[in-house]
Oxygen sensor histidine kinase NreB (Streptomyces clavifer), 409 residues
Amino acid sequence: MRGNTWSAIDTEAADDDARRLATVMHVAFFVLLCSSLARFLMRHPGAPATPWVVALALALALLYVLGPVLGPKEDLAPRDPTAASRLWLAAVIGTWLTLVVLAPSFGWCAVPLFYTGLRSLRTRSAILLVSLITVFVVAAQVQLRLRFGFDPNLLFAPPAVAAVATAVFIHSQRQAVRLRAVITDLVRTRRELAATERREGALAERQRLSMEIHDTLAQGLSSQQMLFQAADRLWAGDPETARRHVRSAASIAEHNLAEARRFVHDLAPADLAGGGSLGDALRALAARETTDTLRIRFHQDSAPAAPLPDRIQSALLRIAQGALANVREHADATTAALTLTHLDDQVVLDIADNGRGFVPTERTGDGVRGHGLPAIRARVRGLGGTLTIESTPGEGTVLTAAIPLEPVP
């Protein structure tokens, strides 16, 4: 839309320039026509041709006034002349030629007529017409002044004026064509860029939604599945523990339901709804994810000096959910710890476990399956932060996400 607006503004500006030039030429034509008629009447009072000259001058003025209706459009863009435009131009040129034969002083009207011919015809035809008009003017002036002796100006001045006028107009016309081509290319490029941005935005939104679903609903369903499997194994021998697993699964299902409803509204984490703090949300997450086989603790080093932006709180909560999902599904850990640290210029979230560990270069490259670590890395990168993974096989894993509190340029 913006590209279309700029194109319209540029085109209108070019058309305005063309209309101003046309106005100057129209005024010049009528000034020269009136001055030529006045000169004839002053120099040849009572001449037999006077009625014809006056009538033809009025006819020429009337024909010229009809130009906006029958003549070419007031712009510099080359156009194919219409039949009405050709007929109008022929009538104007024919009337003017007759006037010049009767009164050579009307030859001064040739310059505005150059412009009229150049606007009305294609370049080659217009140049031919300008040449014909120039020859006619020179012949008429030379014939009139032969009795006073040869004057080189009468022979060379009209062609020079015609050449300059034609060159200036053709140059302006070609510049206008180039400008329109540039505007067209610019508008097309803007449209392509806008389409590309829309596609990239749609892909980014799809990736964001996939991460949101992975970090919430998918993890909740995975936890429920593990709890139900544990309850099924223990139901006969330890029904009380089995019921506890079922209750935990029901709690997770309730939380997932809240998350699903939140997706419908604004995709904000349910734990942060109602103005809850990130520390409270992480504490609730640790309690909810704690099971008989995995104990999760939460610790907050210090309180924030100011409330964290919603975007950072939401991202850190999702990172914690994704990291705990990896601990639960892959680490075979018995304990995990969430540590939230508020510094002057950044907030740091550590997720540590005592699981089996791994070699980070083997698990964080292009060959990673699933959405866990890639989703976490994408969230951290989107906030201008850094993600550090320290792990050794058999010695557990520490994942650290550091998010700057000031926007990164």
Q: What stands out?
A: Residues 152-234 form the longest helix (83 residues). The beta strands are 295-300, 335-342, 346-353, 386-391, 397-404. DSSP finds twelve helices and five strands in the chain. Confidence is low (pLDDT under 50) at residues 1-9, 362-370.
